[in-house]
């Protein structure tokens, strides 16, 4: 045990109060971050004496889900220490069987999170009393409380502000409901094995989101034509024996034992379209010579037609070294394409002459020169007055998500989107609006990695949020459907292709549902792609199975006696 005297002279902890890793705690030992009222007030005073700001969050936290994690992470960034107070079991009135998790275990869950510095269980039904006692510098609530007129919250707010603190509201980028999760759990008891979250269950109950509706969207897109524009990349997976440390120098030594090659970049997107049942044509710069001929043959065998632009001297090659399922190192040999006058003229002519003949145009920019500089603006204007669906994605770090304008849908990872609009840590909703506004895009799908996808579309009229900053977009979260991510290679291409396919399939339907369906198709494709090593293509059957599975899935809960009996058998 260590005494952190200046921090907290009267108590001993197994970790510092602020900024240290959590210890491994025995299940029978109370977590050191769970404080009694007396210990909490002493902790608070020690921080006040040091001039450190305390941020407080309060709630039930019956099931800690991705929305909670983002909320708490954001709250922790508003000060120097984060206190989470939770309502004890006796103070919760959310229906029969609530809370699902006893307050001591709920407290332990929260105390185990890296961003949480202290946890306290409150016996009262609201946080007003503990707020008056702690006097936090900042009290953080979810965005849904911003226009809340509940007198209980009004009393909490008054308690904070009376002591000189501030009440702020987190971004609310991802909204899940513990109650919805538990309701889904109850309805699925003993009936299934999969686990869509409460947000997903609510989404699937909307009109037009039934199993037959989603299947009909997939059917409607079959055979439709799509033009894919972008750089083609060849990815090589070199399978190595277990790495060893060199005998002469302390460096990792790899011994390749085999390799697998995949067509990636825009070629990978085109192959995803073909596997999903559409008819793609790829407009790209192939490598010259035998490499180019082999490339064209692979595309033909995959069901992709190739529209040729001037060739490049070499393949755009990226090597991955892996041992087992672990990717050890990536070596990027891809050199930017020299976009000279002849190449720009050929690309512009091709887009002008036959892009409008396709049901969709999909631009998959790898940031390697084909769409650099003024050519992207020229293509944007050529495609502005189109009859086809236009989707865009910047899949390379040097590619800008904002280069192509007037798209029906812009796809980007969260960090790439934030980088493009210089918004590294603010509200994701604000960042998405900035990107959509700059690119004049109708909608956006933002990848959140293991947290899923977030779809944004424009509101018909700005919505007054009460803080002087009207909201211009609405957000629809789609949780990750991947229980295990084996390899993220190809996931972006699968999401882009599936979401584009969905927009084509819902073209004549309610536009308010189209983006949600596109995001759902993207999540299904992503779950299939990341579950297999290498640049895996997602077939129509894969998509069909994943979509149908959503409506057969349930959250499952069994008592401990049932689980132990099953294990014994």
Write a brief structural summary:
This protein has 569 residues and is α/β, with parallel strands linked by helices. The chain has helices at residues 37-49, 66-76, 103-111, 128-134, 151-162, 178-187, 198-204, 211-221, 265-276, 289-302, 341-354, 374-382, 414-420, 428-439, 491-505, 511-530, 540-552, 560-568; strands spanning 2-3, 12-13, 54-59, 81-87, 118-122, 138-141, 166-169, 225-229, 232-240, 244-245, 252-253, 256-264, 279-284, 305-308, 317-323, 326-332, 360-365, 389-394, 409-413, 443-447, 453-463, 471-478.
Please describe what this structure looks like.
The chain is of the alpha/beta class. Helices cover about 35% and strands about 20% of the residues. It has two domains: about 1-170, HUPs (Rossmann fold); about 205-550, Ribokinase (UDP-N-acetylmuramoyl-L-alanine:D-glutamate ligase). Mean pLDDT is about 80; it is low at about 1-20, about 25-30, about 185-195 and about 555-569. α10 (about 290-300) links the parallel β13 and β14.
Q: Main β-sheet: number of strands, strand sense, barrel status?
A: 9 strands, mixed
Task: Report the C-alpha radius of gyration, rounded.
Answer: 27 Å
In which range does the helix fraction lie? 25-40%
Count of extended strands: 22
């Amino acid at each position: 045990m260590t005494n952190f005297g200046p921090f907290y002279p009267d108590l001993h902890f197994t970790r510092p109060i602020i900024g240290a890793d959590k210890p491994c705690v025995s299940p029978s030992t109370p977590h050191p971050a769970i404080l009694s009222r007396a210990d909490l007030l002493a902790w608070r005073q020690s921080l006040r004496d040091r001039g450190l700001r305390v941020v407080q969050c309060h709630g039930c936290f019956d099931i800690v889900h991705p929305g909670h994690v983002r909320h708490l992470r954001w709250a922790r960034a508003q000060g120097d220490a984060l206190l989470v107070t939770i309502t004890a079991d006796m103070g919760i009135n959310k229906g029969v069987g609530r809370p699902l998790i006893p307050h001591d275990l709920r407290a332990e869950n929260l105390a185990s999170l890296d961003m949480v510095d202290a946890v306290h269980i409150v016996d009262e039904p609201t946080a007003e009393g503990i707020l008056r006692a702690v006097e936090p510098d900042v009290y953080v609530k979810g965005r849904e409380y911003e226009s809340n007129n509940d007198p209980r919250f009004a009393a909490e707010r008054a308690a904070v502000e009376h002591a000189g603190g501030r009440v702020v509201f987190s971004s609310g980028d991802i909204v899940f409901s513990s109650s919805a999760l538990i309701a889904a759990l109850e309805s699925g008891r003993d009936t299934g094995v999969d686990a869509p979250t409460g947000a997903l269950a609510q989404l699937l109950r909307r009109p037009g989101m039934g199993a037959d509706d989603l299947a009909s969207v997939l059917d409607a897109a079959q055979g439709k034509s799509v033009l894919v524009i972008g750089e083609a990349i060849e990815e090589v997976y070199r399978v190595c024996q277990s790495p060893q440390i060199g005998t002469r120098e302390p460096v990792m030594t790899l011994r390749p034992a085999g390799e697998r090659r995949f067509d990636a970049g825009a070629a990978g997107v085109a192959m995803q379209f073909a596997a999903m049942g559409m008819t793609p044509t790829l407009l790209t710069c192939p490598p010259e010579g035998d490499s180019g001929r082999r490339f064209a043959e692979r595309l033909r065998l995959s069901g992709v037609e190739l529209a040729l632009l001037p060739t490049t001297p070499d393949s755009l090659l990226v090597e991955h070294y892996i041992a087992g399922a672990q990717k050890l190192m990536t070596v990027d040999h891809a050199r930017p394409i020299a976009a000279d006058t002849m190449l720009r003229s050929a690309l512009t002519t091709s887009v002008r002459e036959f892009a409008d003949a396709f049901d969709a145009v999909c631009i998959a920019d790898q940031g390697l020169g084909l769409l650099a500089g003024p050519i992207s603006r020229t293509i944007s204007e050529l495609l502005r007055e189109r009859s086809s669906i236009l989707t865009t994605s910047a899949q390379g770090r040097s590619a800008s998500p904002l280069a192509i304008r007037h798209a029906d849908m812009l796809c980007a990872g969260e960090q790439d989107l934030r980088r493009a609009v210089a918004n590294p840590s603010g509200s994701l909703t604000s960042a998405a609006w900035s990107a959509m506004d700059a690119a004049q895009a109708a909608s956006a799908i933002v990848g959140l990695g293991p947290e899923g996808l977030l779809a944004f579309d424009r509101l018909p009229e700005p919505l007054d949020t009460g803080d002087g900053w009207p909201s211009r977009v609405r957000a629809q979260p789609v949780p990750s459907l991947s229980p295990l991510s084996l390899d993220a290679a190809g996931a972006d291409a699968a999401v882009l292709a599936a979401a584009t396919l969905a927009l084509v399939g819902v073209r004549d339907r309610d536009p308010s549902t189209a983006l949600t369906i596109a995001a759902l198709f993207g999540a299904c494709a992503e779950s299939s792609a990341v579950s297999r090593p290498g640049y895996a293509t997602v077939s129509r059957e894969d998509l069909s199975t994943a979509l149908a599975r959503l409506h057969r899935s349930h959250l499952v809960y069994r008592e401990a006696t049932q689980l132990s009996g099953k294990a014994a058998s």
